[in-house]
Amino acid sequence: MTPDEKILQTPLSKDIVKDLHVGDKVLISGKIYCGRDAVLPQIAQLAVNGKLADYGIDLEGSVIFHSAVRAAGLGPTSSNKLEIEENMPLLAHAGVRLHLGKGEISSDTISRLAADDSVFAVIPPVTAILTKNILTQKVAAFPELGMEAFFELEVKDYPAVIAAAHNESIYTRD
Question: Is the separation of the CB atoms in 104 and 110 below 8 Å?
Answer without folding.
Answer: no
